[in-house]
Amino acid sequence: MRKIILILITFIGLQGDKVNAQSIYLATGGNGSFFSATNVENIDAKTNSLTSVFNTATEEIAFTVPLRTFKFKSSLMEEHFNEKYVESEKYPNATFKGKINETIDWTKEGTYDITSTGIMNLHGVDQMRTEKGKATVKEGKIIIDCTFNVKLTDYKIEVPKLVMSNIAPDLDIKVNCTYTPYKKVAK
Length: 187
Fold this sequence. Notes:
With about 190 residues, the chain is mainly β. It has one domain: Lipocalin (Beta Barrel). The chain has 2 helices and 9 strands, in the order H-E-E-E-E-H-E-E-E-E-E. The protein has an 8-stranded antiparallel β-barrel with strand order 1-2-3-5-6-7-8-9. A hairpin with a 4-residue loop joins strand 2 (about 45-55) and strand 3 (about 60-65). About 25% of the residues are buried.
């Protein structure tokens, strides 16, 4: 976990002039889920292993989620997801690196509509995305919620024709992270 956090902190380039200890927020144990609806069966999975770093001074944000941490109602679905679709052995994480587009006073409590633009990587494919969400500042924490759609073909995830009616071509993704100020741990 510590290694993932250090990678994320480096990933959003914390060496800039606008960086100070109060501007770095960390979310560990963030929630992620996806849902796919078809006439045959619904597929849904959840994880609470999403990690994210947010720099309020630069509005930069980075997420990573280990794909093997998604849990399904069926172990067979989980196996197919990891082995046949996302190939989590070869592509272990889904990531996003971007910026929040709005300028927000992150010290002021309230709920704000936000958009974030950046690169999402899934299944070895980078794609530029802009997604909408909500940010809530409360009691020194920042909570970010967003819901968005992912087309499997955009990330070169192939569904065999035999099971196409069982798997929707789009997934509805939900992300919820609670950020707290980052405190460097002494060695």
